[in-house]
Amino acid sequence: MPVVLWACAFPAIRAALTSFQPGELAALLFSIASIVLGAYMALVRPAAPALRDVPRIVVAGALGIAAYKLLLNSGELTVDAGTAAFIVNMAPIFTAIFGMLFLKERSRVWAWSGFAISFSGIAVIASTQGTLQFKSGTLLVLGAAVCMAAQFVL
After folding, report:
1. How far is CA 71 from each of CA 57, 62, 74, 85, 130, rounded to the nearest angstrom?
2. Distance (Å, rounded) from C-alpha 38 to C-alpha 3?
3. Are 20 and 29 contacting, i.e. CB atoms less than 8 angstroms apart?
4. Is pLDDT larger for residue 137 or for residue 17?
5. How far is CA 9 from each of CA 43, 44, 83, 115, 117, rounded to the nearest angstrom?
């Protein structure tokens, strides 16, 4: 089910942008998510995070949720859903690079080979569908992928 919802997100964003501005759409989604999360938190009552973790949580939320959604929504004003999905799915590569740079993680040849094969497969699929186009919103969507990767590393 999560895979189906993820796959539907990009065309749904594109469709919703005919009625909402990028910031309005993000606010609507965050409002719905806040209500659901608030109800869940009221029922489960999890422990509060440690005070030392709060700054990292705030930055991760700002990058991986707010900036990601605003950049993606804004990018999809000019980029089609297939291209946006292709670009956002580069986030694991950025995550690995950030992990190496900031967490001193090591990636072996097999991991990089997997990234190359995955990237090549996505490129082949996108190019055969004739939908892979780079327009003015491409850098915004790429920024969304970078923000998602930064959130993962945080």
Report:
1. 20, 12, 5, 13, 24
2. 24
3. no
4. 17
5. 28, 28, 13, 23, 24
Could you tell me which of 120, 62, 27 has the C-alpha nearest to residue 16?
27
What's the pTM value of the predicted model, to 2 decimals?
Answer: 0.83
Check the CA dihedral 119-122-128-131 and report its sign.
negative
What gap in Å lies between CA 68 and CA 36, rounded to an integer? Answer: 20
Q: What residue type is assigned to position 88 of the chain?
A: V
Give the length of the chain: 154
User: Nearest Cα to 132, choosing from 96, 92, 67, 79?
Assistant: 79
Burial class (CB in 10 A: 0-12, 13-18, 19+), 142: buried
Place of tokens 């009552």: 45
Mean pLDDT of 10-15: 91
Q: Report DSSP state, residue 102.
A: H
**pLDDT above 80 for 2:** no
Domain boundaries, the chain: 2-153
| Greatest mean pLDDT range, 50-54, 106-110, 112-116 | 50-54
Q: Is the pLDDT of residue 127 over 70?
A: no
